[in-house]
Amino acid sequence: MxxxxxxxxxxxxxxALPVALFAAVVAQLTIVNRLPLPGGDAPxxxxxxxxxxxxxxxxxxxxxxxxxxxxxxxxxxxxSHYAGEYxxxxxxxxxxxxxxxxxxxxxxxxxERDPLTTLTVMMIGxxxxxxxxxxxxxxxxxxxxxxxxxxxVLPGAVAYDLLLSPLVLWVVSxxxxxxxxxxxxxxRGDLIHFGHLATAFRAASAGATPGLxxxxxxxxxxxxxxxxxxxxxxxxxxxxxxxxxxxxxxxxHKELRLRLxxxxxxxxxxxxRAAKYGQxxxxxxxxxxxxxxxxxxxxxxxxxxxxxxxxxxxxxxxxPAAxxxxxxxxxxxxxxxxxxxxxxxxxxxxxxxxxxxRSFFRTNRGSTPDGQPLVAGGRARKLHFAANxxxxxxxxxxxxxxxNWLRGTGxxxxxxxxxxxxxPRFSRRSAPQWSAGNALYNGHKxxxxxxxxxxxxxxxxxxxxxxxGARSTSWLRRSRNPWRRRRQRLLRLVGGRR
Amino acid sequence: xxESRRTRLVLIILLILALALITLDFRxxxxxxxxxxxxxxxxxxxxxxxDVTGWFKGGGNSAEIAALQxxxxxxxxxxxxxxxxNTDAAQLASLLHLSNKDHxxxxxxTVVAAGGAYSDTVTLNAGxxxxxxxxxxxxxxxxxxxxxxxxxxxxxxxxxxxxxxxxVGVRMAGTGQIGALSGTADSFSGSAPLRLTLFDATAAxxxxxxxxxxxxxxGRPYVPGVPVGTVTTVTTEPGSLTPTALVKPYADFTGxxxxxxxxxx
Lengths: 498, 265
Fold this sequence. Notes:
Largest sheet of chain B: 6 strands, antiparallel, barrel
Structural class of chain B: alpha+beta
CATH architecture of the largest domain in chain B: Beta Barrel
Strand order of the largest sheet of chain B: 1-2-5-4-3-12
Number of domains of chain A: 2
Number of helices of chain B: 4
Oligomer: heterodimer
């Protein structure tokens, strides 16, 4: 992501170039050439300016700048050489300098713009330009450009030029920076975590597509890989029981993780479905907790620090360090919501009546294998499922998760465990968790699920890439998720991994 | 790819343009319209810039100093001519056509710009508006400076005597031997030696002899009798046809300030 500089700044910089060239030519002729410098040589301000501009811009700009700078030196009054000599040399110098720079940057693995590399390229260009001036004079048999003269002039002139080139490059790059889009940099947290990989990480995140918009959602799409990287070190908020996080597809929490700090509004599958299929109860994505306090919508610009208050208990801290100090979020006194994973691990899991921790798939059933209702936090609460509140069940064919949710597993499990016919049984294609969410939002008495490891999420998400911690995308290839095609198309568009 | 193709196209066009300019200027002997156009464009700017730098250089009363220096230059040039008269009045009177020396007038001017490392040319802040034309002698209080090669309305370009392209007809002040003095493109080394070649193979050259200008027809490009320098080293090769020597010019070409241009009345 990059921010475009204002048009006025770019126009100003573009207009400054010819003015600077003109000023450099006049200063060169009236001041620099008359300075009684030791050695009798003088630096070439125009050549310095041309190479500096070329070193921070494109070959086209470098060639054009060099041509006109050289032409001005050719025709300005005291010139005694043939018109066009310096135009030829400086044009080639400007083009070659910018080309060399772009080639070097393209060859570097990270594309990092190293000032030292730029300076080196500029110095090479300056030396080549001085040599080119002598060569063209020699070629056209200028009586003033003799071998003795070259031997005397060239080293001194190159030395003066090299001496001045850092200064000129600094000035030129400062001015040019006004017109260049500012690249977004990774957040501090990222760099702390990836300190040793900072360079590679920045290069990688530069290719992400945070600004891409999805048609129909109105939200901005954050690719999972970038989201994962970006979210690292930042507090996360995971919901349970609100219906936001669809259990339908085990993968869904990847996209559906709510980011409250610096994340901006992200799309969620549940939201989108609600909008598309007319889920009646959630017109707006709002964070709503049991206290009933309506909090800010998660639609904050990326740079702002959104502060979200829940029942006046606390704020979401921004940095991990702060996270340690600020008390955790509490909902209704039932449990603590961790800001960090280590905290989350300590949160008591949802316990079933028999006291055993249940897995994701089991809780999905809404009841224990024995037919007992779920017990949250030691207190039994009945879940509202689609079967229990038929009016809120979504249409069977739309809005339901793909057929792979619980495919096979549930049946196998039911068969293996000898599930009785008296147990409330739901269709494979129903969406109980949605209804649970609806029930919550409709003010129905519903279960408050507590977050924890192994309940909503698989105990250990599959890692496709050990180094970046990227989740496995094997589900993508198997699923017939309606988002799959769009996601694939997007990733193909931005060249991400598929 | 598209960008790169466009860049290459522009580069090729610019290179062809530069080569065409060189060719045209080469054909015109370095005096093509490009130079006059550039003079018209940059001349006034250099004029102003020279005034500004001169003001900084000379402090507050630079105008007074300049006026005095100009007067001094004129007096010195007249003195030089008078001295050369005294050395051999009768011979010089017939030889140098000094009878029409009153037809000359010195227009003062200041150097405002200098050429690059490879060229020995400077720009004066007076041009055709002051009566200066091409091929006129430029001198200062010390001696010969050079000749005007091109003028614009407000500026004039001087080819210094040290330029490799300049050749000055000279005469030995004592013996009256005539010869040619050419630049060696070594002016960057400060006191640039000029190379003197006498036409008479039997003439004797001694270090310390004074060299003055021989003069051209109509005083262009050089008026007669302007002191140029002294012989420092005789470099006559054994068996060579002509005696040669290195001449140290009186004028300091690296620190040129106020000069005078000898214009016809």
